[in-house]
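Run log // design_07
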């Protein structure tokens, strides 16, 4: 059965949802992407190399991706399996998973933002994929049945959650016995409180990030086993500055000098990591 608790989005959810609606509109207007050439601003995405996984997919899906890695890289997803994507956004990872599971498999995308769900549906139709289903919901209360999926993937989303313990518990709940997790996400060490408390920095995938050790502990605490980090991409000062756009009106009150000083102080303390785990 699905989880009926925590089904109402919080003010933090509304804030993040609004930020990503605006980011989606900017990506359409500028043609920029966090996983394409050139620096991205306003989200914590280093240059993400999808390699051949993104070949032939709709340009709109690639351009509107706000991930920080490729959670399906080297993931042993097999034809016929069921994959759930937490915070599926405009659908790039959904389309990649769709190809891996084939016609006999199924992919379920969960997102709380109407604009993202609408854009994902367009990209699914552009790609001609017939094995993808979209569901509206939060990742703290997944609209998925118990023990119903073979894989849980997510790309730079769990860091945004105000209740990560609930997210980890939900991942364990929906996985079949032996089911696996492949998540790309942002982790951070020793961030200034002023950054963590700022809405724009949270929406940029930094403010809500926990440490790598806390992330591992959270997955293990939910009952998942074989938890490991298989890849890291550490952010330098310039990449951090590109993440938090200095000209963004949301940053008024922090000030450019503070943001630059914070980027200098936190360089090397924020990175993208790929987490793997399994349900026993």
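design_07 sequence
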């Amino acid at each position: 059965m699905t989880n009926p608790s925590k089904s109402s989005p919080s003010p933090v959810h509304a804030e993040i949802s609004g930020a990503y609606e605006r980011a989606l509109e900017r990506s359409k207007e500028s043609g920029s992407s966090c996983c394409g050439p050139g620096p991205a601003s306003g989200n914590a995405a280093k240059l993400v190399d999808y390699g051949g996984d993104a070949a032939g997919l709709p340009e709109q899906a690639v351009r509107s991706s706000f991930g920080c890695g490729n959670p399906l890289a080297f993931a042993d997803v097999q034809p016929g399996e069921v994959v759930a994507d937490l915070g599926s956004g405009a659908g790039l990872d959904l389309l990649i998973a769709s190809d891996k599971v084939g016609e006999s498999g199924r992919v379920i995308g969960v997102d709380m933002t109407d604009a993202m769900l609408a854009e994902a549906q367009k990209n699914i139709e552009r790609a001609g994929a017939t094995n993808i289903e979209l569901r509206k919901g939060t990742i703290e209360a997944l609209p998925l049945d118990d023990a119903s999926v073979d894989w849980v993937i997510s790309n730079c989303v769990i860091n945004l959650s105000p209740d990560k313990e609930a997210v980890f518990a939900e991942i364990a709940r929906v996985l079949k016995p032996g089911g696996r997790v492949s998540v790309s996400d942002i982790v951070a060490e020793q961030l200034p409180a002023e950054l963590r408390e700022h809405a724009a920095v949270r929406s940029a995938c930094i403010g809500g990030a926990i440490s790598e050790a806390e992330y591992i502990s959270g997955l293990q605490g939910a009952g998942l086993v074989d938890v490991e980090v298989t890849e890291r991409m550490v952010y330098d000062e310039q990449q951090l500055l590109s993440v938090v756009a200095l000209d963004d009106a949301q940053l008024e009150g922090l000030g450019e000098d503070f943001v630059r000083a914070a980027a200098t102080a936190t360089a090397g303390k924020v990175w993208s990591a790929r987490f793997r785990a399994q349900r026993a």
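The domain at 11-279 is CATH 3.40.50.150 (Rossmann fold).
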